[in-house]
Write a structure and sequence with these properties.
The structure is a homodimer.
Chain A (H helix, E strand, L loop, with lengths): L5 E2 L5 E2 L3 E5 L5 H12 L10 E4 L14 E5 L2 H11 L2 E3 L5 E3 L21 H13 L8 E2 L2 E5 L6 H7 L3 E6 L3 H13 L8 H8 L1 H30 L7 H29 L19 E4 L6 E4 L2 H43 L3 H6 L2 H27 L5 H31 L2 H45 L9 H10 L7 H17 L6 H23 L13 H23 L1 H4 L6 H25 L5 H33 L1
Helix pairs in contact in A: 2-3, 5-16, 6-7, 7-8, 7-16, 8-17, 8-19, 9-11, 9-12, 11-12, 12-13, 12-15, 12-17, 13-16, 15-16, 15-17, 17-19
């Protein structure tokens, strides 16, 4: 918990959980209105939360934003909020049940008033939910801002965000807890499992699932890495031995993805997110349309016809993506031409300068690829925003799909070209190694060290500023300074880029690792450093993100599965092209191709059967879920029988 | 409703709904015990139903079974049972909601006591459910039968069935209703849509979905049939024009299956089965094992380890199926050898007798195939029984899978061999036509006319017997005779064989119809007669089956989808082999094969994308379902808020 507690307007002290930062020029009447709505009782449509303005810091006052507000709540309010959200907690009998205030004493670890029963991340999530669902009543606009329109049922916070009146809303870090977590996470020298429960406790389920997946993926790669080392040591040049490796690859990538589903279901069950019902998603802040009525909730809400969105997706976005893919292919062809041209110059006149010229195309290509990825990412975000999706989840899915397809093309097109058009295994191996190693180094640098360095410079300036003014006996920063420090930290943009990186690494391993068996070893090494750098950036570089109660890794599961299907096709083709297999069909190439295709179809069929046979949720968890449902049905039946017998008594 | 009503033990008249037939030598004490348990009040663990022994008929008494019982219930009991089952009914506002007795007046068509609110099929389903869930209390065995063990919580009816004490339990037909239904269904000369709502009303959702699918499938085939006719009329011998037809085939079979899912969801929504929660399935009557406790319900129940079942499935059943497939292939090869041998004899010495010899192999092969299908079916049933599945649904799935794979092989292996090994398109066309036409004629005969003829003979004997004794003024049979007549009717074994037949027809059309464009026309004709014969046998040949509240066609959807994937592969291969396409690659066969394979992969990918893009449930029904869920969440929230405010009042 934070060292300092604030005093709310009614005089009782409260622990601040969430910070609201309004624009520094926000009008007084808007602030007063917002605070009164947040403090108002639930019966009157308020959020019934505690809120207080942050005092001035010790920094340069003229630069500080005075409109920072700390939000907290009483323990009773938080527990009721947790019930509204349908949070699942462990009961004393070991089962997971939706928390209800009435049956609070049946839950494990519930003592006294319930202090410590909800983790700080859960409390912050409750507050975020309460703020998000604070709705306008009769107001037609935000007081003082006639252009910030409101209508009954509109989420106030979302309107403030979309109009730029609310700059940000973020949860506070918990210094003591963070120290403990970072020690067990990345400061220990000893190699150990990820402290997933602690990560979940501090950052929520979405983050914990990412680290769980990263850990699982690393372990899953171990057998590949172990087999890869002797391949590297003994058969380096004998790469027609890779048939065994490719077959292993095929089975491996199907099985690990299926087993991950089971592991993910287990984790989600014990974290209580597996069977939690999702609340109805609000429209995203950027969503716009004619005001109408939501057919599900009946609330007033902007309406945008699905047919129009479909037109935008299929007539603009899809052609744009295809055009970009074509461009990417075109640039790849230019690269190969340049390379051929450099090689011919070198062959004609092998001097030092022409030798250097050999590297020029690769360097240009690498830079162009990075630049294209960057530009495309912006274009994809713009387009997906323009498609005007109602839900954040739908926006995310469309964005992920766009970025994924393009990144896949950009990263793997040249490898596919080398493997299947040029059929040069030696070059494939070289390119793969170069791509893997450079992308790894670049990523680690861009992802953790650069932001950390920038952050450190900023922090130092701040701390120096404070120390200039006065000296503290304890080294801890006072609350006011901590809040201002955190407000300046970069915002964590979610696990998108982390998963994308893993996805591409998975591609390198599953698609082509049979020609470069050391790929798995490199990816394992990368993952180990990735864990540390990711953990580090979560703890030190970014603002704390709100918890995200995920039950699985979502659309990424699908992406990885699609990759594993492509891997089956690729590996079969590589096997078919190997000299070893070719020697079985000395006279007829047709025969060879037909056999390869047949084998591929059998393997694909086998893969789909395997997907059916391996159950997504382990049996013991299925049983527990069924038991919960059975109990609720039985309770309902019993209640009805009781009511019927009471009814018959009153009739008599 | 039935013309005659019986008088129950307490003196009030009741409409009989279900018949229980006990063995004629059942001990008196067992009968008395069973009747008292059925009549006992629910608080005491009884079923609280009305039951009465059927009086002696007018037939030969020495042959009649005296132990026939009629079961009925009061309207209030039936409505409560419908609530227990969670039946969905239409409300006055047009939405579908789970019926509750307390809010009965909110439901459409609920008048007075509720007479006519539940269809007779629903009433019978309620009674079946109540009888099935009649559980043993302290009894350790059925009175008078020390070997018929019972334990607390064991379903009494299931034990009686598995020990042969209860011969059968079946719902009664409703003569008036049946006449109306059969008139609108198959007696009208005018071609019209299937009366799906009436079928559902009389036979339940499972039957109605089958007829819905049959109708949908017939309509879906219309475009194929319409395109097929000009192909037949103008290009009969020019079968290298089939590329266009094959491409059409590919798209068609993907799209119709996806659209069927939407149609099925719509039907199930309006019939109230789409969102009905399934009750916990009881173990099947034949399931055995050591007595233990069900981890879900906590009830005493036989336990059989899953690992043992897996061993049986993978070490015995799977090898057996593979062996049968091998045998089937082997017999097919013998057939082709015999055919070659017959042909060579005819070529050497073309006389009348050797010409007849040409037909001998086909006839032998056809007979052997039928015999193998029959024997295999028994073997599959035996094996699946022996695998000892706990649930009826799991038993059905395993049985369907076994029978499906073998039937697919038996029916299509020779066609595949002709198409891809012999590459004789002329022969393929001939075989396809022969197979389609003969199987059609055979099926119609075996399925409807044979059982009808047998039934008719039996009925006539009975009616003659009655008329010999006395003459009725009205032509209607008295209740007693009707019950005995129906008890003698054949039992309808479910939609398994009907779906299997459709599945094979779908195979003929989607796999090979491009070489025989008239296939779709034949299948459409077959389907039209199939509708009539199926309707006829449901109304006149079989005992009325219990309603089966299905929300979709279950495992068959999967089977049809698997077939459509195979169809993509087959059609691509046929296209690749066509002289038209071959002429594009005059010198290189390798090039041709690679292009075909690439096209196939693109089509398969496209197919899967299409599966994702077409939503399984139409948008307006998704909205309605979401609205129901939203309302229940809101109601819960409101209730909690009310409780909280009451609590705070009492504290004050």
């Amino acid at each position: 918990m934070l060292q300092e507690s604030s005093v709310d307007s009614s005089g009782s002290r409260f622990a601040p959980l969430v910070v609201l930062e309004l624009a520094s020029d926000t009008k007084e009447e808007a602030i007063a209105w917002l605070l009164s709505r947040i403090r108002d009782r639930q019966q009157n449509g308020g959020a019934e939360l505690l809120v207080e303005q942050l005092g001035p810091g010790i920094g340069l006052e003229e630069k500080e934003n005075p409109n920072m507000f700390l939000v907290g709540a009483s323990m009773q309010r938080l527990l009721c909020g947790a019930e509204d959200l349908g949070l699942f907690k462990e009961c004393t009998d070991g089962s997971m049940r939706a928390f209800t205030f009435a049956s609070k004493h049946n839950f494990k670890d519930f003592k006294g008033d319930g202090d410590g029963f909800l983790s700080m991340a859960e409390c912050q999530y409750v507050i975020k939910h309460e703020l998000d669902t604070l709705r306008a009543k009769e107001e037609t606009n935000v007081p003082g801002y006639s252009h910030a329109k409101l209508y009954p049922g509109k989420s106030i916070i979302r309107r403030l965000l979309s109009k730029g009146i609310l700059i940000q809303m973020f949860p506070l870090h918990e210094n003591e807890e963070l120290k403990r977590l970072s020690f067990s996470w990345y400061k220990k020298v000893k190699v150990s499992l990820q402290p997933l429960d602690d990560i979940r406790h501090y950052y929520g389920e979405g983050q914990a699932l990412y680290f769980g997946f990263l850990e699982y993926f690393t372990f899953a790669l171990m057998p590949m890495a172990l087999i890869g080392v002797p391949y590297y040591l003994f058969d380096w040049e004998d790469y027609d031995k890779y048939v065994v490796f490719a077959v292993f690859n095929l089975i491996w990538c199907t099985v690990i993805l299926e087993l991950w589903k089971r592991r993910s279901a287990s984790l989600a069950y014990y974290w209580g997110t597996l069977c939690r019902k999702k609340a109805f998603e609000e429209p995203r802040p950027g969503f716009h349309g004619v005001l109408g009525h939501n057919p599900v909730t009946g609330r007033a809400e902007p309406i945008y016809p699905t047919s129009k969105r479909h037109l935008r997706v299929y007539l603009v976005s899809l052609p744009f993506v295809l055009l970009c893919l074509y461009l990417s292919l075109y640039i790849m062809m230019i690269y190969f031409q340049m390379e051929g041209w450099a090689l011919s110059i070198y062959d004609e006149n092998p001097t030092f300068w022409t030798h250097i010229l050999l590297f020029i195309p690769s360097i240009i290509y690498a830079v162009v690829i990075e630049a294209m990825n960057l530009i495309y990412r912006y274009a994809a975000e713009f387009l997906t925003e323009w498609e005007n999706h109602r839900l954040e989840s739908s926006y995310q899915n469309h964005l992920v799909l766009k970025v994924l397809v393009f990144n896949f093309f950009n990263c793997f097109a040249s490898l596919f070209y080398i493997a299947f058009v040029m059929q040069d295994m030696e070059l494939l191996r070289q390119s793969l190694a170069t791509l893997l190693i450079t992308s790894q180094i670049l990523n680690q640098f861009m992802e953790a060290f650069l932001p950390y360095w920038l952050q450190r410079r900023r922090n130092k300036k701040m701390i120096r500023k404070i120390q200039k003014r006065r000296l503290y006996e304890e080294k801890e920063l006072p609350l006011v300074e901590q809040v201002r420090l955190e407000a300046d930290m970069s915002t964590y943009l979610g696990t998108f880029d982390d998963y994308l990186e893993l996805f591409l690494l998975f591609g390198y391993v599953s698609l082509f690792s049979c020609v470069f068996p050391l790929a798995a070893v490199l990816v394992v090494l990368n993952n180990i450093t990735e864990v540390y750098s990711d953990a580090f950036k979560m703890c030190r570089v970014f603002k704390r993100p709100f918890a995200d109660p995920a039950a699985n890794i979502g659309v990424w599961q699908l992406a990885f599965e699609a990759m594993s299907v492509i891997a089956v096709v690729t590996n079969c083709a590589l096997i078919g092209m190997s000299p070893q297999v070719r020697s079985y069909f000395p006279e007829s190439e047709t025969q060879l191709i037909l056999c390869t295709v047949a084998a591929e179809h059998v393997l694909l069929g086998f893969k789909f059967i395997l997907t059916f046979l391996i159950q997504d949720v382990p049996k013991h968890i299925q049983d527990k879920l069924a038991r919960l449902e059975f109990e609720s049905l039985e309770a309902l039946k019993k209640k009805k029988m009781l009511e019927a017998s009471q009814l018959s008594k009153t009739v008599q």
